[in-house]
Amino acid sequence: MIRVVVADDHEVVRGGFAGLLATQPDISVVGTAADGATAVEVCGRTRPDVVLMDIRMPGVDGIEATRRLTATAARPRVLILTTFDLDEYVYDAIRAGASGFLLKDVRAEALFDAVRVIAAGEALLAPTVTRRLIAQFALQHRPQAPAPVALSALTPRETQVLRLVAEGLSNPEIAARLVVSEETVKTHVSRMLTKLGLRDRTQAVVAAYETGLVVPGARG
């Protein structure tokens, strides 16, 4: 059973998402919150697997709440909810540790799939808009005094895999591109994330753009 908390300051949106998720036999909504501070408190009590997090909330916003949650021992997976497909705050939320994002007009089945993907430990990178957003803002919103990402620690193959991950390719697509097994790709991805000290594929995409390994609009 996937335990979910829904955080959004709009009651209708919050209740709507919670109601939809509650229809799924493998998903349990264990709490809701109208602001970031309450979201952190609720998550501390309920220990969810996934948090659907709005960005713009009063008081503690979704970005700060995400930062606080991903710094806890429980480290729930955070799925950002946004009204705008090119909301600059989404990039900040990913830097804070979010694993992906969804537009609030997402279809029900896509919502269910997203929660399952995030709960399984993957990052939600499938929508083209995600890659466009990261490409647009990665070079404009670098964090202050960033820790250097040691791309030199990667093997040539791991660097190639990072480029393809940044293009939004899935493991099967990368395997087909490189003519290797999917299991080999999984190994390369895992080693790449470990060497760079990254949590998931979303952060890998950000790192690829921030380091200049991938340039917006380019394909390698």
From TrEMBL:
- The species this protein belongs to is Asanoa iriomotensis
InterPro entries per the UniProt record, alphabetical: CheY-like_superfamily, NreC/VraR/RcsB-like_REC, Sig_transdc_resp-reg_C-effctor, Sig_transdc_resp-reg_receiver, Tscrpt_reg_LuxR_C, WalR-like
Give start and end of each HTH luxR-type domain.
147-212
Q: Which residues are modified to 4-aspartylphosphate?
A: D54
Spell out the protein name for this chain: DNA-binding response regulator
Keyword DNA-binding: yes or no? yes
Tell me if Transcription regulation is a UniProt keyword of this record. Answer: yes
Report the GO molecular function annotations.
DNA binding
Matches recorded under SMART domains: HTH_LUXR, REC
Keywords, sorted A to Z: DNA-binding, Phosphoprotein, Transcription, Transcription regulation
Q: Where is the Response regulatory domain?
A: 3-119
